[in-house]
Amino acid sequence: MNYYNWLFSALVLVVYIVSSNGTSRLIRELGITKKAAPERAVYISKIFNIAIAGLSIFALFFIWGIDYNGILLFGSSLLAITGVALFAQWSILSNLTASVVIFFNYPARIGDNIRIIDGENTVEGTIVDISMFQVLLEDGEGNTINYPNNLLIQRPFVKLRKNTTSAKRED
């Protein structure tokens, strides 16, 4: 019985290493294809690798017959505390989620000129950086605008031609 535990544990470890490396490589290649900043691929890879590590740990607990009751009690308490904290700062969680969505499926990339249509608060500029929490835009006057990721995917935008912003600077 103990031999099988070690064998299955080694199998879980191999699956973890292969899937973690494969996921990281796949996300890196997808980032290159979508012309995303390399740092963004690292952020997204970390999120997926943490999830894979958690699943691997639970598989090891199952293999070795570790009692889940104490771990589940601790985990549920930790999730309750985290849930209250995230509810208080809901925008943090929504910005992280929006960052993943922007990485995988968003038509604008770094260097694109965009106009975000938000009623009276329309914002226009060139995307300089896309981080985990916000998109940095540079307007025609050289000012940097921090725009939250969750608002970016909720608002319509217009992808402008390259010379639109420069033409406004000359006027």
Description of the structure:
With 171 residues, the protein is an alpha+beta fold. It folds into two domains: 2-102, Helix Hairpins; 108-170, SH3 type barrels (Roll), CATH 2.30.30. The protein has six helices and five strands. The chain has helices at residues 2-33, 38-64, 68-88, 90-104, 149-154, 162-170, and strands spanning 113-116, 123-130, 134-138, 144-148, 157-160. The protein has a five-stranded antiparallel sheet. Strand 3 (134-138) and strand 4 (144-148) form a beta hairpin. Helix 1 (2-33) packs antiparallel against helix 2 and helix 3 crosses helix 4. The chain is elongated, with a radius of gyration of 22 Å. The protein starts with a helix and ends with a helix. Mean pLDDT is 84; it is low at 164-171.
